Amino acid sequence: AVTSPKTKVTALPGDGIGPEVMAATIRILDAAGAPIEWEYAEAGAEAFKKGVITGVPRETLDSISTNKLALKSPLETPIGYGGKSANVTMRKFFELYANIRPVRELPGITTPFSGRGIDMVIVRENVEDVYAGIEHMQTTTVAQCLKLMTAPGCERIIRAAYGLAQAEERKGVTVATKANIMKLTEGMMKRMGEKVAAEFPDIKPGHIIIDNCAHQLVIKPEAFDVIVTSNMNGDIISDLAAGLVGGLGIAPSSNLGDHAAMFEAVHGSAPDIAGKGLANPTALLSASIMLLRHIAAFDVAEKVEQALFITLAEGKNLTGDLAPRGHGVGTAAFTDQVIANLGRSS
Ligand code: NAD
To answer: This protein's superkingdom (predicted)?
Structure first.
């Protein structure tokens, strides 16, 4: 029989609950027949403890450089030892300039916004803006932080948003900025939005001031389709938007560059429940579904997503964060339930 070639993906089990949600995710993907060969690599706390100042050993960077694809669990940013954030190291090293955060209602997850038809994608610029971390004291009482935005940086993130809208057959792209106050930096993003929009006549362009965007996200979240915004604006509104559909614990994201892509859960390493077998793997599993679609393994993506949706909708064997008080099960039982639901259509 002819077997289709497998895609090699670097798996970073990470810190805290990271190894637990990674093991659960890979168990589900393997059971679903995902065409992936996993290459495990280290990053985060263990690397810092070994004295790797960036939190990411050379072999890990090499693995991602070669495979161009990574599935990453949360990494701790150690306080009191180590150097920078390992996450920032990788984002910068691989120039992962687009952070993609889909936000939509999941079956069985009830929120004050349930039933509104929320289905949007937030495209956040991931490497520029005030996150360049260039700060200094001007005098002993005046601190300054540089907000750096470049025309090529604005152009590629706007193009990423339009490309995504086109690929997913979405109707509109809204550029969210603070251009009314920061006319050069944020204004550059707004003007670039207008320029690029002209090339996509089938997609409705829009612009909104970021504070009103936060307001509208709460008042009328179903009105949004694709939102594209600068780094700090995106950091804030993507967490807000995740809250509308059930919180950070279930939110996936991807970090895309021109040469590599990294998929991860939005939540952190949850030290309070680490090692107890209680973590919910839904966010990393959802990120892995994004990865499957990225490598065009659409059938397997559909199969895993369907099994996850059925599990959530039926509400049987959910982890403690989603189940009614006292009815939660552990990571392994939830994972078994998703695997049992593979291949079911409803
Ligand atoms: P956190 O997301 O780890 O935890 C917040 C709360 O949510 C905790 O009560 C935790 O138990 C719960 N939670 C999170 N994920 C869960 C899951 N999958 N299942 C069940 N419950 C879950 O946030 P934090 O405590 O602020 O951060 C802890 C560490 O994670 C820090 O070192 C931080 O730097 C790091 N972090 C890493 C990333 C990343 O790697 N992308 C993102 C955020 C935070």
So the answer is: Bacteria
Share of residues in the chain with pLDDT > 90 (%): 89
- Cβ–ligand 1 distance for 272 under 6 Å, the answer yes
Q: Find out whether the beta carbon of 264 lies less than 6 Å from any atom of ligand 1.
A: yes
Closest-lying ligand 1 atom to the alpha carbon of residue 320 = 20
Question: What is the SS3 assignment for the chain?
Answer: CCCCCCEEEEEECCCCCHHHHHHHHHHHHHHCCCCEEEEECCCCHHHHHCCCCCCCCHHHHHHHHHHCEEEECCCCCCCCCCCCCHHHHHHHHCCCCEEEEEEECCCCCCCCCCCCCCEEEEEEECCCEHHHCCEEEEECCEEEECCECCHHHHHHHHHHHHHHHHHCCCCEEEEEECCCCCCCHHHHHHHHHHHHHCCCCCCEEEEEEHHHHHHHHHHCHHHCCEEEECHHHHHHHHHHHHHHCCCHHHCEEEEECCCCEEEEECCCCCCCCCCCCCCCCHHHHHHHHHHHHHCCCHHHHHHHHHHHHHHHHHCCCCECCCCCCCCCECHHHHHHHHHHCCCCCC
Q: Quick one: pLDDT at residue 81?
A: 58
> Atom 36 (ligand 1): residue with closest C-alpha?
268
Atom of ligand 1 nearest to the CA of 284: 18
Residue closest via CA to ligand 1's atom 8 equals 270
227-278 pLDDT, tens digit per residue, is 999 999 999 999 999 999 999 889 999 999 999 999 999 999 999 999 999 9
Q: What is the pLDDT of residues 264-303, one digit of tens each?
A: 999 999 999 999 999 999 999 999 999 999 999 999 999 9
CA of 72 to the centre of ligand 1 (A): 14
